[in-house]
Design goal:
By secondary structure, the chain is α/β, with parallel strands linked by helices. It has helices at residues 2-17, 27-43, 59-67, 80-89, 127-137, 168-177; strands at residues 49-53, 72-77, 96-99, 112-118, 138-147. Strands 3-2-1-4-5 form a five-stranded parallel beta sheet. Helix 2 packs parallel to helix 3. The mean pLDDT is 88.
Length: 198
C-alpha cells in the first residue's frame, strides 16, 4: 500500500508542478476530448447528471458543459493546482469541483447518467478496480465514456517514466467483466511534436 501511495503522490506532484504550462502541451488531450464529446452528441441520450473523472485544468470540461445539456455536473481531480485552474476557468458554469482521486472514491450512490474521463484513466493504479467504482457511480442505464492511451502509445518516453498502458482486449474484457454491456471501442493514432521530452 505504501508503494501505491508513493506512486500516486509522485504523479500528483508532477501534475501540480506542470499546472502552469499544462494547457500549452495538451493538444492530444484536447483532440481526444472533443472527439469523445462529439460521439456523445451522436448517441442522442440525455445526461442530466454528469461526473468527470480527472477534470485537469477544465479545458474539456468547459466544452462538455457547453455541449451536453445537464442539470447537475460534478468534476474531480487529485492535483490541487490543476483543480484551481479549472475552478477559475469554469467560474461561470454550474459545475461542482472537488479534489478527489478516482482510485479511492467513496461510492455511496449510483445516480450519475454519465461518467466522463478524457485521457486520465491510464493513471489508475488498478484500472479494474477503478472500473468497478465507476460502474457503481452510474445509474442502471448510465454511460461511461472515456479515452485512454493504449499499449504502444508514447514510445518516446522511457518505460519507467510512464504508467502501464493496457491493450484494447484487456480494457474491453475488464468492462464486460464489471457489467458494462454496450461497448463501443475505436482507436485512432495521434501525433504531436514537442521541442523536448518535458
Amino acid at each position: 500500500m505504501t508503494n501505491n501511495n508513493s506512486t500516486k503522490e509522485r504523479i500528483k506532484f508532477c501534475f501540480n508542478k506542470a499546472a502552469d504550462t499544462y494547457d500549452q502541451a495538451c493538444a492530444i488531450q484536447v483532440q481526444t476530448g472533443i472527439e469523445l464529446i462529439n460521439l456523445l452528441q451522436h448517441n442522442k441520450h440525455s445526461y442530466p447528471k454528469i461526473i468527470d473523472l480527472g477534470c485537469g485544468t477544465g479545458l474539456i470540461k468547459k466544452k462538455l458543459a457547453d455541449t451536453i445539456q445537464n442539470d447537475e455536473f460534478h468534476a474531480i481531480d487529485f492535483a490541487s493546482k490543476l483543480l484551481g485552474i479549472a475552478k477559475s476557468r469554469l467560474l461561470n458554469h454550474k459545475i461542482d469541483l472537488y479534489e478527489a482521486d478516482y482510485d479511492s472514491l467513496d461510492v455511496s450512490s449510483n445516480s450519475f447518467d454519465l461518467a466522463f474521463s478524457n485521457m486520465t484513466l491510464q493513471w489508475s493504479l488498478d484500472l479494474s478496480n477503478t472500473l468497478i467504482a465507476t460502474k457503481n457511480l452510474l445509474n442502471p442505464n448510465g454511460t461511461l465514456a472515456f479515452s485512454i492511451p493504449i499499449e504502444g502509445s508514447l514510445l518516446e518516453l522511457e518505460k519507467e517514466s510512464s504508467n502501464q498502458f493496457h491493450t484494447i482486449n484487456f480494457i474491453t474484457d475488464s468492462l464486460r467483466e464489471h457489467g458494462f454491456t454496450t461497448i463501443k471501442c475505436s482507436t485512432k493514432k495521434y501525433s504531436a511534436h514537442f521541442p523536448n521530452i518535458f
